[in-house]
Amino acid sequence: MSSKTGVCNTSAFKTPKKKIIRNSQPSSEAVVVGRRSNLGEALKAKGVDQKLPSKYDHGRTIPHFEVRLSKSNPFRLFYIGPQPNSVTLQDILSKDHISALLIINYIVDVKWIRDQLSSASQRTDDITIVASVRADLDGSMPHPQDPEGLKFFNVRSMPYKFGTHHAKMIIIKYDHGGVRVVVTTANMKVDDWNLYVNGLWVSPLLSRSEDGSGNPDSATNFRKDSVLFLRTYEMFSHDQPFRLITRWMEEISILNCVDVNVYFVASVPGKHQTDLEDWGHCKLRKILISHNKLCHTTASQSHVVAQCSAIGSLGGRDPGWLSSDFLRSTGASGSLCNFHLIYPTAQYVQNFIYSAGSGASTQADNQTCLSYSRAVHAEQSWLTKYLCKWVPADSIKMPAIPHLKTYASVDSEMRRANWFLLTSANMSQAAWGSNSLDQSTSFIKSFEAGVLFIPECCTDSESFSLVDSEDADQHFLQLPYKLLLRYLPKDEPFLTNSPPDFYKKSSLG
C-alpha cells in the first residue's frame, strides 16, 4: 500500500515505477452447505455486508476492472476477500457480452452466480457447471427451477476414498468469439468471495482465427494442458453427456494462447504411470527441472514455503511422503530443514471469530474454511516444528482466514522467489499424489487446478523480488502473508473437531 495515497493495490504482482512506493484427508472444505455460516451472520450484525460491493460502495470509486487488469500485467494475479477494493465476481463478468460460461468448482451457489451475472448486465443462460455440491435450493443438480440453458456435469461420486472434486476454474466465451480463462481458489459462493482470502488469475483475452488453423499455443503449453485436463472428465460420462465438456475442449483447442505466460498445473484422480509427469507434484517437478529450478546449487539455497487452508495425512508418524515425494519435487532437496508450512494458529482463529462478534456458542466446523483433523495431527505432531503463523500481508486490511493455497521457493534471506504457485491443492497426498517406492506410479485422488509463475516466462528474469523497491527492473511479488513467523511453544494449529468450549472467552489466551 502506498503511504502517500492510502490506496490498496489488490494486484498480487506489480512492476514498480521509478519511485519508491513501499511502506509496509477428509474433505478440504470445512463449510456449511445450503445456508449462511454463523460467521457470516456475525459479520453482517457488525455491519460487514456479504453482498458483492457495487462500484461505489461507501462513497469510494473502484476503478473499472479492465483498467485494474491491464495494470496487473504481466501477472494478472489478484488476492480477493475482505479487503478494500477487492476484485469481485461481478467485476470479472462485467467485460463484454458473455455468450456462454463453463464453471468448474467444488461448491456452487447457482442463485448467487445468476445474481452476479444479472448485476453485471449479462443475460446468458448458457451455463455449464461441473461440481460436486450445490449450496442453493435443495442441492439438486439439476433442479426444476433452473433455466433451460443451465446444464450440470455432476462429479459428486469420486472414484477414491478421500478424493474431492476440488479444482476451481471459470471459462468465459464472449459474443465476439474470444475466450477468457480464470483459475481461482474460491468456491462459487458468497462467503468465499467476501469473508475469506482467496486468489485468482485471469488470462488475457484469447482469440481464434475464422477456421481455427495456425493458432499457436503458449510457450508453457497452457492450451494443451487445459484440454488434457478437461478430457479426464470422461471418467464420469457413463451416466451423463460428455458433450457438455467436449464442447469446451473444442473451443479451447483452437485458441491463440501465445500471450499466456503461466503453466497450468493440475491433478486428476488415477494411478498414473505413462502420464505420471502430467499431474500433481510430478508435473510441478518436470517444469521446475526444465527451468533449472531444482539444480543442486539452487535447491541447497532455497526454502519451500507452503501455505494452505487444509492439511491431510502426510505420512503419519513418519514424514516420508513429505520429504521423499513433495519436497523432492519442489526443490528443498528433500530436506525438512528448508520447509515451512503457513497455517493459522488456534489463537488466531479464536481471536478472529471474537473480533467478528459471533459469540461463545459457535462450533469450529461451522465457522471457517479451515480443515485439519485433530486425529490426523495427533499422528503427525512432528509437523508443528515446521509450522509458521498465518499473518495477512499489510495490503489485506482486515484480519482474515485464508482459503487460498500458495507455494513458493524463496532464498535464505527471504528476499527473492524462484517460482510461485497459486492452486486449489492443499497440503495432502490426495491432492498432490503419492509415488510408489520405485517412483513408477503416482496415485492421486482429487481434482485440483493451479497456475505456476516462472520468472523466465513472466518477466524474463531469474527470480521475483519479495522486496518492493525503486528499481523498475525488479519485479515485485507481493505475497498474501508475512514471512516467516514460526509457531511459538504455546502455539497450536487450528484443528477441526474442536471441543465444545473452544470458543468460550475463558479459553482465549
Automatic annotation (TrEMBL):
Annotated Pfam families: Tyr-DNA_phospho (PF06087)
Membrane-spanning segments: none
InterPro entries (UniProt xref): Tdp1
Superkingdom of origin organism: Eukaryota
Site (Interaction with DNA): 428
Tagged with keyword DNA damage: yes
GO-annotated molecular function: 3'-tyrosyl-DNA phosphodiesterase activity; double-stranded DNA binding; exonuclease activity; single-stranded DNA binding
Binding site for substrate: 168, 405
Main subcellular localisation: nucleus
Keywords: DNA damage, DNA repair, Exonuclease, Hydrolase, Nuclease, Nucleus
GO BP: any one term: DNA repair
GO cellular component, one term: nucleus
Catalytic machinery residues: 166 (nucleophile), 403 (proton donor/acceptor)
Location of the protein in the cell: Nucleus
Record protein name field: Tyrosyl-DNA phosphodiesterase
Taxonomic source organism: Ceutorhynchus assimilis
